[in-house]
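Letters spell out the chain; backbone shape is given numerically. Take this protein:
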Amino acid sequence: MTLKQSAQQFFDACETGKGWDICKQWCHAQATFSAQADALAEVSTLEGYTDWMKGLLTPIPDGHYELKSFAVDDERGNVMAAAVFHGTHTVDAGSSAPTGKSVSADYVYVMDFDGEKIKHMTKIWNDGHSLKQLGWA
């Protein structure tokens, strides 16, 4: 399997809320995660992030991505995916009543590989803007 194929399958599984049980097949067991976003400040593993995404789709069950770009950098062993996340807060997940507000959030994943599996992923995302759109901030 190529880096591109692995990254595409991981990206889709992560973004559709499959969680770590499915996503781990494309990752090293101790894969790390980073983002300069307060909403993800406590998340440091890719396992934690994939499960966070799974949880996000509870209050936003129509959450889906619109892929804008997908690029492989073989020299550096990474793959970048640029997308827009769309969804509306329609379900009470136990923390607040649905706001009925929608989000349209640009973001980028930079997936660093070691061999055929992801060893680290960075998410570039303006969480403050997204939280305001949803009425959560």
User: Anything to note?
Assistant: The helical segments are 3-15, 20-23, 46-56, 127-134. The first strand starts at residue 27 and ends at 35.
